[in-house]
Amino acid sequence: MVGLSARKPPSRKGSMADVPKDLLDQIKRLEELFTVPGEKLKEITDHFVTELQRGLREEGSTIPMNPTWCMGFPDGHEQGTFLALDMGGTNLRVCEVTLTEEKGEFDIIQSKYRMPEELKTGTADELWAYVADCLQQFIEYHHEGQKIEQLPLGFTFSYPATQEYIDHGILQRWTKGFDIDGVEGKDVVPPFEAALAERNVPIKLTALVNDTTGTMIASAYTDPLMKIGCIFGTGCNAAYMEDCGSIPKLAHMKLDPKLPMAINCEYGAFDNEHKVLPRTPFDIIIDKESPRPGQQAFEKMIAGLYLGEIFRLVLLDLHQQPECHIFENQDISKLTKAYSLDAGFLAAIEEDPFENLSEVQDLFANTLGLTTTKPELELIRRLAELIGTRAARLSACGVAAICKMKGWETCHVGADGSVFNKYPLFKARGAQALKEILDWPEKKGKGRGDPVELFPAEDGSGVGAALIAALTLKRVIAGQNAGIKDPEAMKKAAEGVMKVRPHHHEE
């Protein structure tokens, strides 16, 4: 009984001896469909580079390459007390982050509040009133009896938004189950600030932050080799630091070409034109039946939301083929329900440590009401491996493309998201793909990491958002007001931080 991580693929091949020819033929066909060889990965990466560059040149390109107005990495010496707000689909999280005198160190206190379902389809006023109430509760609880001038806030707003300034953002479209009228196409900051003002909550929104940018900045605070932040979860995305001189679409602003600017790539939309990604008939069905066909082509092949659905569609297709005998004479009604299987289902299949795949057998019985034979289990396991491996290998193309475009031969990448953190072998398979794309030489000596390596990220929506607020105030104090809508109010907030810090150390 060998654990998954220790088991080498040949031992699984050995167990194919008793698989009948019809299923072996199908496994071979699926291997041809889902395997992406190194040469193909290189071709995808090269096209990715041209699309990233196009996004820096043109507004409205497939990969938007949104400037975030987060201009620089932390140096580890930032100090002060900052709030962070993360408005997710299920929870609202409020953090107070104190950046201490120790380089790269911080203290954090946090509270979670449930995001009521009815708010997601209610009115904008109700939403912002609830958010402001949570912030007010947080401050009253943690700063009882203290006089606070103003606390600066980094707001992680992980919905597609365009930003001409770091302290504002125009919502492009709601995601995560939100559908509130009259917010899309508008700046979300004024109504949010109005709700705070109505309650006299001493908070100044200092930075509206995307979670990928937050991930990169939080990771860079503790690791100076960090250059990219990635999310591999329900969706996929990355952020990295560009210099303003390499962003032609900002040329009219006459910024110093050497100034750094964090770019939120929003690259889940890569190859919406279907020029290079090796789509299978199953990927085409997923796209056609999704709420937004023709969008997020890359994401639909690698993100957690879709992996279980690709798997389900393949099994359904196999069952319906007359020459293939799988789940014969069984009720497959549970397998016909769209999006009933998630990435966690595939992860559980890949994690079964037993040679006879008894855990997978139980999983199919309990979840889908299906009895599985040993040959069917072998096919199921191989299919999960193929889909999981393809996702990890394709995901490496985005990271490799940023490195190639920037000429980085070595860097650390901060990665977050459920697929990265929980899917078995995702990191190892991605690393193997990076090696093939970037042609790394064989390693010499033990203990040396790969030239480009992914690490679990620091808390991007908490610590990252607070750090970006700190970096923004640092810029204002230095008189660098590019991308700041209300520098005067920011200066006041900066003074507020200085005043609140002594109180904090006395607690």
From TrEMBL:
Known catalytic reactions: D-fructose + ATP = D-fructose 6-phosphate + ADP + H(+); a D-hexose + ATP = a D-hexose 6-phosphate + ADP + H(+)
GO CC annotation terms, alphabetical: cytosol; mitochondrion
Any Pfam family matching the protein: Hexokinase_2
GO molecular function: ATP binding; D-glucose binding; fructokinase activity; glucokinase activity; mannokinase activity
Species of the source: Lentithecium fluviatile CBS 122367
Name listed for the protein in its UniProt record: Phosphotransferase
Enzyme Commission number(s) from the entry: 2.7.1.-
Lineage, highest ranks first: Eukaryota, Fungi, Dikarya, Ascomycota, Pezizomycotina
Gene Ontology biological process: glucose metabolic process; glycolytic process; intracellular glucose homeostasis; mannose metabolic process
Span of domain Hexokinase N-terminal: 27-221
Keyword field: ATP-binding, Glycolysis, Kinase, Nucleotide-binding, Transferase
Domain Hexokinase C-terminal, residue spans: 227-471
Pathway(s) the chain acts in: Carbohydrate degradation; glycolysis; D-glyceraldehyde 3-phosphate and glycerone phosphate from D-glucose: step 1/4; Carbohydrate metabolism; hexose metabolism
Chain ranges passing through the membrane: none
The family this protein is said to belong to: Belongs to the hexokinase family.
